[in-house]
Amino acid sequence: MRENNKRAGFLDEVRGFAILCMVVYHVMFLLKFQFEVDVKIFFESWFSYIQSFFAGTFIFISGTVCRYSKNNIKRGAQCFLLGMVVTFVVALFVPQFPILFGILHFMGICMILFGLGEKMWDYIPAFIGIIICVALFVLTFNVRNGYLGFGELSIALPDMLYEARLLFPLGFRYKGFDSADYFPLFPWMFLFFAGGYFGVYVKNNQMPAFFYKTRVRFLAATGRYTIWIYLLHQPIAFLILSIIFRNSEV
Question: How confident is the model over 217-231, as pLDDT tens digits?
Answer without folding.
Answer: 999 999 988 888 988
